[in-house]
Write a structure and sequence with these properties.
mainly alpha; about 120 residues
Length: about 120
């Protein structure tokens, strides 16, 4: 393994870090800095902050997010499988079928739990 081949990558990382900090520093030094009470106050969707920030959320928000991620990952895995379907043969086909079956079981579970019912 020749580490000299990775030297341009190291230079790029160092150069990007230096430029990033230089731009942040220039903005801090050259930009206006005039804080006042209204600017430093808590902000919540255009209204004054109300209630405790630790209020409870409905679990269905998280279930819908997990469901979205589940189908997003399904698509991310199925595109390469569809492209390489001719080379992988029957083993790859049945592996994809097992993968889809597991995702279908997860979808049916979410459906039965009522995660897709929005009130």
């Amino acid at each position: 393994m020749n580490l000299q081949e990775y030297f341009p990558v190291l230079l790029f990382i160092i150069f990007a870090t230096v430029i990033g900090f230089a731009l942040l520093g220039a903005g801090r030094l050259l930009g206006p800095h005039r804080p006042y009470a209204e600017k430093l106050s808590p902000y919540e969707c255009g209204f004054e902050a109300f209630g405790d920030s630790r209020m409870k959320f409905d679990v269905r928000y998280y279930l819908v997010a997990i469901l979205f991620i589940m189908f997003d990952l399904e698509i991310a895995f199925l595109f390469p499988w569809a492209i390489a379907n001719g080379e992988i043969g029957m083993v790859g086909f049945w592996t994809a079928i097992v993968f889809l079956a597991i995702l279908t079981v997860g979808f049916i579970y979410e459906w039965k739990k009522g995660a897709l019912d929005w009130e």
